[in-house]
Design brief:
With 133 residues, the chain is an all-alpha fold. Helices cover 83% and strands 0% of the residues. The chain has one domain (3-130): Membrane associated eicosanoid/glutathione metabolism-like domain (Four Helix Bundle (Hemerythrin (Met), subunit A), Up-down Bundle), CATH 1.20.120. It is elongated, with a radius of gyration of 17 Å. It is found in: Membrane.
């Protein structure tokens, strides 16, 4: 197995566990608020649902882009750096959003990190594709 693929597998697995933790947090808040569908007007449940949903909106696309980079031959260091930033960003976003409805350091750093990795991986994929004769 190529080291870049192994690097991506590590970060995808860790992100999968983080997604599971966010999902379990939604279930915990649903049980506490006795709400089966929607958020029932409960602010903590609404934040948990959004943290989970926001993860689901961004992470799959970034992982696809990182997979394309690994397949195209980018080194494992690139994948570890971007995977690590994405993981820390998503963890920070989840924590920041769960603690406050408004702006927070975790939420801001989380989104900037996510957008940074998304932008970098997108440009790298385009650049790699354009370099093929």
């Amino acid at each position: 197995m190529r080291p870049a693929i192994a690097a991506l597998m590590l970060w995808a697995g860790l992100l999968g566990l983080l997604y599971l933790a966010l999902a379990l947090n939604v279930v915990r808040h649903r049980y506490r608020a006795k709400v089966g569908i929607g958020d029932g007007g409960d602010p903590a449940l609404a934040r948990a649902v959004r943290a989970h949903g926001n993860f689901a909106e961004y992470v799959p696309l970034v992982l696809v882009l990182l997979l394309l980079l690994a397949i195209a031959g980018w080194g494992s260091l690139h994948l570890h750096i971007m995977g690590g930033i994405l993981f820390v960003a998503r963890l920070g976003h989840g924590i920041g959003l769960s603690m406050s409805e408004g702006p927070s350091v975790g939420r801001g750093v989380g989104m900037l990190g996510t957008w940074g990795v998304l932008a970098a991986a997108s440009v790298m994929v385009i650049w790699t594709a354009a370099a093929v004769p």
